[in-house]
Design brief:
The complex is a heterodimer of chains A (113) and B (114). With 113 residues, chain A is mainly beta. Helix content of chain A is 0%, strand content 55%. The N and C termini of chain B lie far apart (41 Å). The chains are: A mainly beta (113), B mainly beta (114).
């Protein structure tokens, strides 16, 4: 298995633009998590899905952030419009229910200028 | 409310020296505890976890951690550090029931000098 795959690895965009981050979880994993990592706040959970259904999105900072999981093999995190304070590394992770064996992707480093 | 504190932002050790990274947690229930390692530009890799039973747990790469309930601590140790251990280390706590997510500490960056 190739692990959790995130794309792009790096994204530089201008303030006000729409940004879409992508994640492919490990096949068979029924939980998917989106985390954001910044120097100031560390790793924060944004949202997680179980069987493609959003369970807890209380960590999503603002309405500018949205996440979807249209099927078991794909999820997106969208920021519209983007702002410089959104600059961070965004991680996707997946696991099988009943197990705490999280597998993290390599992350997407987002820079908003 | 749950929280994880890693009081050391940055630690420098000599290669071959012993290592201890501190982690304290605050949790309303009996927690699951984890240590992850993050190499530059990489995702997080699980080093070890504690669910129950023996309070001294062994992990990968020669790491171990000890759960001390009375001190609400879960410190990570390694008897002899290798240069390849230089990375960022995260302690995390999760619930045994209910919510399924992990709460992470802010991390400790480890530098290894020759």
């Amino acid at each position: 298995d190739a692990g959790v795959i995130q794309s792009p690895r790096h994204e530089v965009t201008e303030m006000g633009q729409e940004v879409t981050l992508r994640c492919k979880p490990i096949s068979g994993h029924d939980y998917l998590f989106w985390y954001r990592q910044t120097m100031m706040r560390g790793l924060e959970l944004l949202i997680y899905f179980n069987n493609n259904v959003p369970i807890d999105d209380s960590g999503m900072p603002e309405d500018r952030f949205s996440a979807k999981m249209p099927n078991a093999s794909f999820s997106t995190l969208k920021i519209q419009p983007s702002e410089p304070r959104d600059s961070a590394v965004y991680f996707c992770a997946s696991r099988i229910g009943g197990s705490y064996g999280y597998t993290f992707g390599s992350g997407t480093r987002l820079t908003v200028v | 409310a749950q929280s994880v504190t890693q009081p050391d932002i940055h630690i420098t050790v000599s290669e071959g020296a012993s290592l201890e990274l501190r982690c304290n947690y605050s949790y309303g229930a009996t927690p699951y505890l984890f240590w992850y390692v993050q190499s530059p530009g990489q995702g997080l890799q699980l080093l070890l976890k504690y669910f129950s039973g023996d309070t001294l747990v062994q992990g990968i790469k020669g790491f171990e951690a000890e759960f001390k309930r009375s001190q609400s601590s879960f410190n990570l140790r390694k008897p002899s550090v290798h240069w390849s251990d230089a990375a960022e280390y995260f302690c995390a706590v999760g619930a045994k029931t209910g919510a399924n997510n992990l709460f992470f500490g802010t991390g400790t960056r480890l530098t290894v000098i020759p």
